[in-house]
Design a protein that fits this description.
heterodimer; A: 414 residues; mainly beta; five-stranded antiparallel sheet; 3 helices; 19 strands; globular; B: 432 residues
C-alpha cells in the first residue's frame, strides 16, 4: 500500500461524517442538511460600513451541491443560487459582494473541467452535476437591474423584479434578511417555498448532514465584530409525521416531508445595558411566521405581520421580574406587537423598541404567536442570539439559551 | 414599533405560570442527554481561562452562572489548573432565576462573590430574590456562606498554582509554568445538594449520598476580555446534561473520577472536532484554538520541575485543509507519513502541541504549523495510546475558535463536533 493510498484511506475514515450521532430536536452544532443565517445586515450607503460574512463548509469527502436562498426580513425569497462544494470544501461569502452583484463562483467537473473554479484536494471528491450546466458557474456579475431590485427588496422599497415590496423599510438603507442553505441533489432555481418539487420523494433536497459554518457581523467603523456558528438544522428522514413541527413546516403544510428538525419556541438571554458593555446588548431574532410570504403592496404589510409575541419576561440580577404583557386577569394573551415584528430582526435591549426596567439581567422570550387559530396551533419556532457591545471597543456575540424545542414546545401560558 | 412597559400588579400569577413551565422544560432537557446543545445542564464547563496577574488591565476571563429554574439551587464552582489539579472550590447559592457574574481577576485578588441562602441571609440582603423565585435555607452552608474574601495564603496558593509555581499550600506544583505570570486553567460548576469543600476528584462527590445532583438548570456564558487590545470574545459555557440512570458503566464527563462507573451521570464530550482558521487578511492576528482535553487520569500536585505521568497529552491526528481542500497531514503517532501537498510543508510540529488539559494555541505557530492562510482543521484529541491498535477508549475534548484583528476586534465561537461523546468516532488511524 503506498503512503498516498494509505493517507487517502486514513483521511476518508478520519473525516467520514457518521451522521449517526445526530440527536433529533437538539440544537447542537453537528453538521447538518440545512444551515440558517438567522439575520444579516449590509450597509448599502457606506462601502466600509456594516456587513455580514458567512462560510459554508462540507464535512464530508463527498462533493455536495447546496442551494443558497436569500430571504427578506419578512420571509420573501429574493435570490437563490447553487453552490458546489468539493469534499471538505469551505466557501466564504461576504454579503456586501452579493448586494454588489457578485456571487460566489463554483462549478462541478462538468462546468469546470480545468478545475479552475472549484479546485479540489487530493482526498476530496469532485464530480459532475449535469443539472448544473447553464447554472454554474454563476455569472461573474448579476445584471444591474436585478441588483437594483435585490437592494430594493431588502431595504423595504419597491422591487421591479418582484413587482412590489418584500421587506421592512426602516429608512436606513441597510439590507436586511436571512439566509438558508440546503443540501440538494441538483442545481435548481426552486426555493423551499415552492409548492412542490423542493421537498419530498421527487424533491431536490437531500438529507445529507454534512454542512457546517459560521457567520460574522463586522462593523469596521466601530471596530465591532462578533459571530457565531450558523444554526445547523439536521435532517432525520422518516422521523417526522404529518402534524409534527419541522423547520420548513410552513412550506410542506405540516407534512414533515422536509425532514428538518425544528428550532425552539422559548429562549433565554442575558443582557447588559451599561458597565463594561457601554454599547448595550442587541438581540438577534429569527422567527417563523408560519406563512408562505409573497411580495406585497408597498406601504402595507403582508398578512400575519407584524408578528406578535406570546410573552416576555425580564429579570434583573436580583430576580425581580417585569413583563409588558397581560393587561387583565383572566384575559387570553392578545396579539401584542412586540419588538420582533419581522421574521429576521435585530433590536437593542433598552431602546424604545425594547424597553427594560433593568440595566443587567436576563430575559425570556416566548416566540409563539397568539392566539392559536383554527388549524393553527401557533407553536412557532425561532432563534435568538445575543450581542453585547462596548462602544467603539469590542462586541461579543453568542447564541441565547433554548428553553424548549418545537418538537415538544412549552404550552401556551396561561 | 415602540412600546411601553405596563407594570400591573396581578401579572405575577400569569408570569409565574409561564416560568414554571420553563422550569419544567428545563427538567425535560434530559430527554436527549447526549446532545451537545445549549439547553441548561447540571454541569457548566469553562474550558479555559486566563488572567494576567502582572497587569491589572490585562487579559481576564469573565463568566456568568444562571439558574433556569424557579427553584433555588446550590452550585459548586471548582477551579482546576491547566493540568487538571483542583485548586479551590466554593459554593454559589442561586435563588430561582438567579444570575451571578464573575470576573476571575477578582478571585485571583482574593475578592469573592457573596451569596447566601435564607439560613445565612435572613434579611435577604446578600441574595435577594424576586417574587417568583424560591429562596430556601440550606443549613449545611452555615460557615461556608457568605463566602469570605480569601486569606492571603489561599490567594497566594491560587496565584502560584495557576502559574505553574510552587504552591505554599501544597509545597508542590499543579500547572504549567509558561513564564508569563498569566493564571491559566479551567473551571467547572456542578449543581450540588449541600455546601462542602469537595471537588469532583473527591470521594463522596458523586453517587448515592454524594453532593452532586442531576438538576439540569444551569446556563451561562464566558468572555475573554483584553482591554489593552480592545479584544473581547466569548461563547456559551458548555452545558453538560445529567441523567442519573443513562450512563451506568459508560463514559461520562467525569469518568476518571468515578472509575468509569457513570455515577456522575454527566454526558461526555466527543474527541473529534473541526474548526475554521484564518491566519491573515482581515484577521491580522490570526486564529487561536481553545482546546480542553481529558487526560483520563486523576492528577494531583507534583514536584516542581516534573510533570504528571501522562504529560504531555498528544494529539492522535490533525489535518489542516486550505480553501481548495489541499490537506496537510503532519506525521502523527504512530504510523502516518507526511501527506503529499502542493505547497511547502511547514516544520514538523512537536508531538506535544496541545499538551495540557486546558490550552490556547495560535494556528500557524510552531506548535500548530499549517502551510495555508485560510481553511479548516480537523483534530482528534484522544491520546494515541487510547486509539487503535492499542485499544479504544475515547478521551473527550472541546474546541473553540478565536479570530483576531490586531487591536480592532476578535470573534469567538465553538468548534464543530464531528461525533457524539456518547458514541465517539473511533475512526482515527487504521493499522497498516
Amino acid at each position: 500500500m503506498t503512503s498516498r493510498l494509505f493517507c487517502l484511506l486514513a483521511v476518508a475514515l478520519l473525516l467520514a461524517p457518521s451522521g449517526a450521532f445526530a440527536e433529533i430536536c437538539s440544537l447542537d452544532n453537528a453538521p447538518a442538511a440545512t444551515l440558517l443565517l438567522p439575520y444579516f445586515e449590509v450597509d448599502l450607503d457606506h462601502p466600509g460600513g456594516q456587513t455580514t460574512l458567512f462560510t459554508i463548509n462540507n464535512a464530508s469527502a463527498t462533493a455536495v451541491i447546496t442551494n443558497v436562498v436569500i430571504w427578506t426580513d419578512l420571509g420573501v425569497p429574493t435570490l437563490n443560487f447553487p453552490l458546489y462544494l468539493t469534499g471538505y470544501d469551505v466557501q466564504t461569502i461576504n454579503l456586501r459582494d452579493v448586494f454588489n452583484g457578485a456571487l460566489a463562483r463554483t462549478a462541478s467537473v462538468g462546468q469546470d473541467p480545468g478545475d479552475l473554479l472549484s479546485p479540489k484536494g487530493h482526498y476530496s471528491q469532485d464530480i459532475n452535476f449535469a443539472s448544473c450546466n447553464g447554472l454554474l458557474p454563476v455569472p461573474a456579475a448579476l445584471p444591474a437591474d436585478f441588483v437594483a431590485s435585490l437592494r430594493a427588496a431588502h431595504t423595504g422599497r419597491s422591487s421591479a423584479v418582484l413587482g412590489g415590496c418584500a421587506g421592512r423599510n426602516l429608512g436606513d438603507n441597510l439590507a436586511r434578511g436571512y439566509i438558508t442553505v440546503d443540501t440538494v441533489n441538483q442545481c435548481t432555481l426552486r426555493t423551499p417555498n415552492f409548492l412542490e418539487g423542493y421537498f419530498g420523494p421527487n424533491g431536490v433536497t437531500t438529507d445529507q448532514n454534512v454542512l457546517w459554518g459560521d457567520f460574522f457581523y463586522v462593523d469596521p467603523a466601530n471596530n465591532f465584530a462578533d459571530g457565531e456558528n450558523l444554526v445547523r438544522i439536521e435532517a432525520f428522514p422518516g422521523a417526522f409525521k404529518p402534524g409534527d413541527a419541522t423547520f420548513y413546516g410552513r412550506y410542506v403544510n405540516g407534512s414533515g416531508i422536509d425532514n428538518r428538525e425544528p428550532l425552539a419556541t422559548v429562549w433565554a438571554s442575558r443582557f447588559a445595558v451599561g458597565g463594561a458593555f457601554s454599547g448595550g446588548t442587541d438581540l438577534v431574532v429569527w422567527r417563523d411566521s408560519g406563512r408562505r410570504v409573497g411580495p406585497f403592496a408597498c406601504g402595507t404589510s403582508p398578512p400575519g405581520f407584524p408578528l406578535a409575541l406570546v410573552n416576555e419576561a425580564t429579570f434583573d440580577e436580583q430576580e425581580r421580574a417585569e413583563t409588558p404583557f397581560f393587561p387583565c386577569i383572566g384575559c387570553q394573551p392578545g396579539p401584542q406587537v412586540g419588538a420582533f415584528p419581522a421574521e429576521a430582526g435585530r433590536v437593542q435591549v433598552g431602546s424604545p423598541d425594547f424597553l427594560v426596567p433593568f440595566d443587567f439581567g436576563w430575559l425570556v422570550l416566548d416566540l409563539k404567536i397568539p392566539p392559536p387559530g383554527q388549524g393553527d396551533n401557533g407553536f412557532r419556532q425561532g432563534w435568538v442570539g445575543t450581542v453585547m457591545k462596548a462602544q467603539g471597543r469590542f462586541s461579543v456575540g453568542f447564541s441565547a439559551t433554548p428553553v424548549d424545542t418545537a418538537c415538544d414546545p412549552m404550552p401556551f401560558m396561561p | 414599533m415602540g412600546r411601553t412597559l405596563r407594570c400591573v400588579p396581578w401579572k405575577s400569577a400569569l408570569i409565574l405560570l409561564a416560568l414554571q413551565g420553563m422550569a419544567a422544560t428545563a427538567t425535560a432537557a434530559t430527554t436527549s442527554v447526549c446532545a451537545l446543545d445549549d439547553r441548561p445542564g447540571a454541569t457548566l464547563l469553562l474550558p479555559y481561562f486566563e488572567v494576567d496577574l502582572d497587569h491589572a488591565d490585562g487579559p481576564t476571563t469573565l463568566f456568568s452562572v444562571n439558574n433556569a429554574s424557579a427553584m433555588a439551587v446550590l452550585a459548586n464552582v471548582v477551579l482546576w489548573t491547566d493540568l487538571g489539579v483542583p485548586t479551590f472550590s466554593f459554593p454559589v447559592y442561586l435563588t430561582g432565576y438567579d444570575v451571578q457574574t464573575f470576573n476571575l481577576r477578582d478571585l485571583f485578588t482574593g475578592n469573592m462573590v457573596k451569596t447566601a441562602s435564607a439560613a445565612q441571609d435572613p434579611g435577604d440582603t446578600i441574595s435577594p430574590k424576586g417574587i417568583f423565585s424560591q429562596d430556601v435555607a440550606i443549613d449545611s452552608c452555615n460557615g461556608f456562606l457568605p463566602q469570605p474574601d480569601l486569606p492571603a495564603a489561599v490567594r497566594d496558593h491560587l496565584r502560584a498554582a495557576h502559574t505553574g509555581q510552587s504552591s505554599p499550600v501544597w509545597n508542590a506544583c499543579g500547572g504549567q509554568n509558561r513564564g508569563d505570570h498569566v493564571a491559566r486553567g479551567y473551571l467547572t460548576v456542578d449543581t450540588v445538594s449541600r455546601c462542602a469543600t469537595l471537588t469532583p476528584a473527591d470521594p463522596g462527590y458523586f453517587g448515592p449520598g454524594g453532593v452532586a445532583t442531576g438538576q439540569n438548570v444551569l446556563w451561562g456564558d464566558f468572555f475573554y476580555v483584553d482591554p489593552a487590545k480592545d479584544y473581547a470574545d466569548g461563547d456559551n459555557l458548555i452545558r453538560l446534561k445529567a441523567d442519573p440512570t443513562a450512563f451506568t458503566g459508560k463514559p461520562t464527563f467525569y469518568s476518571r473520577y468515578v472509575n468509569g462507573s457513570g455515577a456522575d451521570g454527566r454526558q461526555p464530550l466527543p474527541p473529534d472536532w473541526a474548526a475554521r482558521y484564518i491566519a491573515s487578511s482581515g484577521f491580522t492576528e490570526g486564529t487561536d484554538l481553545i482546546v480542553w482535553r481529558d487526560s483520563g487520569q486523576v492528577t494531583t500536585p507534583f514536584p516542581c520541575g516534573l510533570k504528571p505521568s501522562w504529560y504531555p497529552l498528544l494529539v492522535s491526528s490533525y489535518v489542516a485543509f486550505d480553501e481548495e481542500e489541499h490537506p496537510f497531514i503532519p506525521p502523527s503517532f504512530p504510523f502516518s507519513e507526511w501527506s503529499p501537498g502542493p505547497k511547502a510543508q511547514p516544520p514538523l510540529p512537536p508531538a506535544d502541541q496541545l499538551p495540557a488539559e486546558a490550552n490556547r494555541l495560535q494556528v500557524g505557530t510552531e506548535n500548530l504549523a499549517v502551510p495555508f492562510d485560510f481553511g479548516w482543521i480537523y483534530l482528534y484529541l484522544s491520546a494515541p495510546s487510547h486509539v487503535p491498535p492499542f485499544g479504544f477508549a475515547s478521551l473527550q475534548g472541546w474546541v473553540g475558535v478565536v479570530m483576531k484583528a490586531g487591536g480592532r476586534f476578535s470573534v469567538g465561537f465553538g468548534g464543530t463536533p464531528l461525533s457524539s461523546g456518547c458514541s465517539p468516532s473511533n475512526q482515527v488511524l487504521p493499522p497498516f
